[in-house]
Design goal:
By secondary structure, this protein is of the alpha/beta class. It is built from 23 helices and 13 strands. Helix content is 49%, strand content 11%. The protein is elongated.
Length: 642
C-alpha cells in the first residue's frame, strides 16, 4: 500500500503541488482559527465609522454598519469552505451512486439511469445550479443542494467510465466466478480501485464548487443575513467599487486564491497519478446470429452419477459490431469427465479463452452466448436462475486466469480475497474463513502462509500468485478447474511446480481439469485428451497419448512440427505454418484452415467439414485427414518453411 502514498507525496514535491498544498493548508488553518480569533471584531457595529475607506484602524474599510471588512473576510473563510466542501461531498456521493447503480440494476433500468446522466451532463454546471437554486429556494441549504446536484452528473459520468475500465480486469471476473454479489463486487473490488482518480477530481471540483457558491450568494440566492460568506461580501462591496474598491476586491481575491489552491493541488495530484479517462462507444446490430444445426455430439465421459462434469454442445459466442455480429467461437462441442484432464491448444485468437469464459458464465452483454447444451454437473448453465448459478459456480468451479497479477484485487490482502469465497458460500465467520484461507495457501505450497495471507498481491512472485489463485479455487470443493494459460510468463522451474500442483489437486480430489495452453508439449504431458482449436472450432479431439503418433488434422500436425526438440536438425530452417489465422469477422467460406493447408482443394474451400470419428476416442474435422505414419516434418514443409 506504499505506492499510492508515494504518488501522493510525489505530487506534493512538485513546485506547483507544494505551493498549492501549502496555500490550501493555510486556508484551512485560517478557516478554523479566524472565527475564534476575530469573530467578535468582525461583528462589532460602529456607527461612527460607516462605509469608511481603508485606514490604519480598518485595513479594508468598513461596511454600511461600520463593521471591519478585513476581519469579516477572514471570518467568512470557515462558512465559505464548509458550504463548498459540503456541496462537493454531496455531488460526489450522488455521482458515485448514479455512476455505480447501472452495474447493479437490471439492464433496462441501468440504461435509463445512464441516459439521464448523459442528458444532465450536456447542460453547463452553473446553469443546473441556478435551476436547482430556484427550485429549492434561497438560503444556504438550497444553495448546497443546488450545487451538489449540479456537480453529480459529471462525477457520475466519471464513475461509469472508470468502473468500466476496472470491470474488465481478471480479478473482477474471478470475484464473479466465486459468486460475489453485484453490490459487494462494486464496493469491494471496483470502487476501491478507482478511489484515487475520484479523489483527485473531487479536489478539483471543490474549487469549482467554491466559485459557484460565491456566485449564488452574490446573486442573492445563497447565504442570507445575518450570515455572510465571500460571495455575499462581494455583493455588498460592489455598490461602491468606484469609490473604495477594497471591500469588493478583498472577497474576490479570497475566492480566486482558494479556488486556485484546490484546482492546482488536484491537477498536481492528477499529474502524479497519471489519471486518464476513457470513452467507449458501443454499437450493435439489432438481430442475434442464428444458431446453426447441432454438430454431432462429443463423446460423453460420465462421472460416478452417470453424467459428464462438463458437457458442451454447439457453443457459440458472438459480439456485436458496426457491420453485424462477429462469432469468434462457432460451434464448439466437447465434454469433460470426472477426474479427467483435457487440454485445449491452438494459436492466439483461436477462441480458447473465450470458450473457457463462456463455460464459466463470465461473458456479459452485449456479447451473446448460445448452445444446444451447456451443462455443468448436470445443471444447464444457460437456463438456471442467476442466484443458484452463482452458488454452483462459486463452490464447484475454479478458474485460474492467465495473468496472476490482474487476477487479484491489488488493494485487498491475499488472505481476505481467498476468505471471501468461504464467507459468501459456506457461511463461515470472518475469522474461520481467514483460517481456511491460510490452510489453502499451505495446501498449495505457499511458504509461511500465515504471514503471506496478510500481504498484498504485489508482494507475491508470479509463481506464488498462481499458486494462490489455485488455492482460491480450492476454498470450495471444485469439480472442475479451468486453467487459462497458468504458466504464462513463468520460468521453467515455476511452470513445473504449477503443473505439478494441478496434478496433485486432480489426484487427491478427483477434480477434472480443463487446461488451456499455447504449449502443445505441456498439454501432451499433463492431460488425458487434447482439443485442437482453430478459428473458433475444434478441428481435432484425440487422446494425448496418441498426439505425436496418430494426429490426423493438418493443423495439428503443423503445430507439432513447429515445436523444436533436441533431435531437430539445426541445419534446416524451423518448420512454420504459412500465413496467418483469419480474423473472427473474416472467416473464409469452407474450411477456415484451407488458405494455409497444403492438402486443401476446391471442396475444402466450398464446405466446412464436420467432425468425424477416426479410431477410438479420436474425432477430426477435415476432408483430407493425414494418413497414419506420415512424418510431421514432411507434412509441415509441404506448406512452406521460414
Amino acid at each position: 500500500m506504499s505506492a499510492p502514498r508515494s504518488r501522493w507525496s510525489a505530487a506534493a514535491r512538485t513546485p506547483v503541488g507544494a505551493c498549492a498544498g501549502l496555500l490550501l493548508l493555510a486556508v484551512l488553518v485560517l478557516a478554523v482559527l479566524a472565527p475564534i480569533l476575530w469573530g467578535d471584531e468582525a461583528s462589532v457595529v460602529d456607527t461612527d465609522a460607516i462605509q469608511q475607506g481603508p485606514s490604519g484602524a480598518h485595513l479594508l474599510g468598513t461596511d454600511n454598519l461600520g463593521r471591519d471588512i478585513f476581519y469579516r473576510v477572514l471570518v467568512a473563510t470557515r462558512l465559505s469552505l464548509l458550504l463548498a466542501v459540503t456541496a462537493t461531498v454531496l455531488g460526489v456521493v450522488l455521482g458515485l451512486i448514479l455512476g455505480a447503480v447501472p452495474s447493479v440494476l437490471p439492464r433496462r433500468a441501468g440504461r435509463f439511469v445512464t441516459s439521464v446522466v448523459n442528458i444532465a451532463v450536456a447542460f453547463p454546471g452553473l446553469l443546473l445550479a441556478l435551476f436547482f437554486a430556484v427550485i429549492f429556494g434561497v438560503g444556504a441549504t438550497g444553495a448546497v443542494l443546488a450545487i451538489g446536484l449540479a456537480m453529480a452528473p459529471a462525477f457520475a459520468r466519471l464513475t461509469q467510465t472508470l468502473s468500466a475500465s476496472v470491470a474488465g480486469q481478471d480479478f473482477v471476473a474471478a470475484a464473479r466466478t466465486v459468486g460475489v454479489g453485484r453490490i459487494r463486487l462494486l464496493t469491494r473490488h471496483i470502487l476501491p480501485n478507482i478511489a484515487e482518480p475520484l479523489a483527485v477530481n473531487a479536489t478539483i471540483g471543490a474549487g469549482s464548487s467554491l466559485l459557484a457558491f460565491a456566485g449564488l450568494s452574490f446573486l442573492g440566492l445563497g447565504i442570507q443575513a445575518p450570515d455572510y460568506d465571500w460571495g455575499r461580501l462581494l455583493g455588498e462591496g460592489l455598490g461602491r467599487i468606484n469609490l473604495t474598491p477594497a471591500p469588493a476586491l478583498a472577497p474576490c481575491v479570497a475566492v480566486v486564491v482558494t479556488g486556485l489552491a484546490f484546482n492546482l493541488f488536484g491537477e498536481a495530484a492528477a499529474a502524479a497519478l497519471g489519471v486518464r479517462t476513457l470513452s467507449h462507444k458501443t454499437a450493435g446490430p439489432r438481430a442475434l446470429p442464428p444458431l446453426p444445426p447441432s454438430a454431432p455430439d462429443a463423446t460423453d465421459r460420465p462421472d460416478a452419477e452417470g453424467r459428464p462434469v462438463l458437457a458442451v454442445e454447439n457453443l457459440r459466442v458472438a459480439f456485436p459490431g458496426p457491420a453485424g455480429w462477429t462469432t469468434p467461437v462457432r460451434g464448439v462441442s466437447f465434454s469433460v469427465g470426472a477426474g479427467e484432464a483435457v487440454g485445449v491448444v491452438g494459436e492466439s485468437g483461436s477462441g480458447k479463452s473465450l470458450t473457457a469464459m463462456a463455460v464459466s458464465r463470465l461473458i456479459e452483454p452485449p456479447a451473446h452466448v448460445s448452445a444446444h447444451r451447456l451443462d455443468f454437473t448436470g445443471t444447464p448453465l444457460l437456463d438456471t436462475d442467476e442466484r443458484e448459478l452463482r452458488r454452483l459456480l462459486g463452490t464447484s468451479l475454479a478458474m485460474v486466469f492467465q495473468d496472476p497479477m490482474s487476477s487479484f484485487n491489488p488493494v485487498t490482502g491475499m488472505g481476505r480475497q481467498l476468505a471471501e469465497v468461504a464467507e459468501h458460500h459456506q457461511g463461515l465467520s470472518r475469522r474461520a474463513a481467514f483460517a481456511r484461507a491460510v490452510d489453502r495457501l499451505r495446501a498449495v505450497h505457499v511458504p509461511a502462509p500465515e504471514r503471506r495471507a496478510r500481504q498484498y498481491p504485489h508482494e507475491f512472485s508470479g509463481g506464488m500468485r498462481q499458486r494462490a489463485m489455485i488455492g482460491m479455487g480450492l476454498m470450495g470443493d471444485p469439480r472442475l478447474v479451468i486453467a487459462d494459460e497458468p504458466t504464462t510468463a513463468l520460468d521453467v522451474t515455476v511452470q513445473r511446480q504449477v503443473l505439478r500442483l494441478l496434478a496433485e489437486v486432480r489426484e487427491e480430489r478427483g477434480t477434472a481439469v480443463l487446461l488451456i495452453s499455447h504449449d502443445i508439449t505441456v498439454v501432451a504431458r499433463t492431460c488425458d485428451r487434447v482439443l485442437v482449436m482453430y478459428a473458433g472450432r475444434i478441428v481435432e479431439d484425440l487422446p494425448a497419448a496418441d498426439l505425436f503418433t496418430a494426429a490426423r488434422h493438418p493443423y495439428t500436425r503443423a503445430l507439432l512440427a513447429a515445436v523444436p526438440d533436441l533431435e531437430t536438425d539445426r541445419d534446416r530452417p524451423l518448420a512454420v505454418i504459412p500465413g496467418r489465422p483469419p480474423e473472427p469477422d473474416r472467416i473464409p467460406q469452407g474450411c477456415a484452415f484451407a488458405p494455409r493447408c497444403p492438402r486443401a482443394d476446391d471442396h475444402c474451400r466450398r464446405e466446412d467439414p464436420e467432425p468425424v470419428t477416426h479410431g477410438i476416442g479420436q474425432r477430426v474435422a477435415c476432408w483430407h485427414p493425414v494418413r497414419e505414419g506420415t512424418e510431421l516434418v514432411e507434412e509441415s514443409t509441404r506448406g512452406g518453411t521460414a
